[in-house]
């Protein structure tokens, strides 16, 4: 079956079912809901394989598709709006959030500032290759945009190193969004279960023609110099992907990098690796059993 995906620039943010590409409905949520949040420059379908795998293990998967150029805070507000329209029972039973790259920051921002306001109970967050301390520089983000054009369709409207998301990822925005998020999270008395997973292959593919060629090697050499730290996943340094190194270690906060194949997984494939998908499923099940619904 051919699935039609909307252009979020024209139709706005949406929650979609990974199997059909249609809007996620209350009737789809007969089991615990897991919302998947894609990263900067990507599309909801980027995490569809992971979402389908999780759904096969007894969860209801929803892909959050949003315009990732408009800012982490704007994406979090869009997520809050869509989740706030879910049935009251679903809000009380709670949801999980799984974010890849910038998507993890969107998930954290929503939980930190919007979840209680909207009455959404979040049971836990899993992040894959998320730059919890932000990216390094505008030049770094420029390479990210080049990489994104090679794995997704170019965005002709907001593709700029000075778009809101770029400024926030480099912590160059007027509000210092990432720094404030981490500061507020460190002072938060809540102990929300949080899993962060990183990759260890310091290499990114820039289109089919340059994967193994000189151009690809040169781009990766420049990226490595900009990152200036190993290990990294080709885009995000380990020290940034590890939530425990960014926000003080808390109960129910876990980081994983010691899984088989860590050194062979880069930023692009963290959400497309079956072993990592299995780790996420086990964490979801364990967290689900620990976070029972509050007594009425």
Automatic annotation (TrEMBL):
Coiled coil, from the record: none
InterPro entries cross-referenced by the UniProt entry: AB_hydrolase_fold, Hydrolase_4
One GO molecular-function entry: hydrolase activity
Domain Serine aminopeptidase S33, residue spans: 33-128
UniProt-listed Pfam families: Hydrolase_4 (PF12146)
Domain of life: Bacteria
Keywords per UniProt: Hydrolase
Entry-linked Gene3D superfamilies: alpha/beta hydrolase
Listed name of the protein: Alpha/beta fold hydrolase
């Amino acid at each position: 079956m051919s699935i039609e995906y909307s252009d979020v620039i024209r139709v706005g943010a949406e929650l979609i079912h990974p199997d059909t590409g249609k809007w996620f409905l209350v009737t789809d949520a007969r089991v615990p809901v897991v919302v998947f949040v894609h990263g900067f420059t990507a599309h909801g379908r980027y995490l569809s394989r992971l979402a389908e795998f999780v759904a096969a293990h007894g969860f209801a998967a929803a892909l959050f598709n949003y315009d990732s150029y408009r800012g982490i805070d704007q994406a979090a507000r869009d997520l809050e709006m869509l989740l706030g329209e879910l049935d009251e029972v679903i809000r009380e039973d709670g949801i999980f959030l799984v974010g890849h790259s910038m998507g993890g920051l969107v998930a954290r921002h929503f939980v930190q500032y919007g979840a209680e306001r909207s009455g959404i109970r979040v049971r836990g967050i899993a992040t894959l290759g998320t730059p919890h301390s932000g990216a390094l520089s505008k030049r770094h983000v420029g390479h990210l945009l080049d990489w994104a054009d090679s794995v997704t369709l170019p965005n002709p409207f907001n593709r700029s190193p000075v778009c809101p998301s770029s400024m926030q990822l480099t912590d160059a925005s007027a509000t210092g969004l990432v720094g404030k998020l981490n500061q507020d999270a460190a002072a938060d008395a809540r102990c929300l279960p949080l899993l962060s997973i990183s990759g260890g292959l310091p290499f990114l593919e820039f289109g089919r023609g340059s994967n193994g060629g000189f151009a690809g090697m040169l781009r990766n050499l420049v990226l490595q110099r900009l990152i200036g730290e190993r290990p990294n996943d080709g885009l995000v340094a380990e020290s940034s992907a590890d939530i425990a190194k960014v926000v003080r270690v808390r109960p129910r906060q876990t980081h994983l990098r010691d899984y088989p194949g860590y050194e062979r997984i880069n930023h692009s494939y963290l959400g497309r690796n079956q072993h990592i998908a299995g780790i996420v499923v086990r964490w979801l099940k364990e967290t689900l059993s620990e976070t029972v619904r509050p007594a009425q």
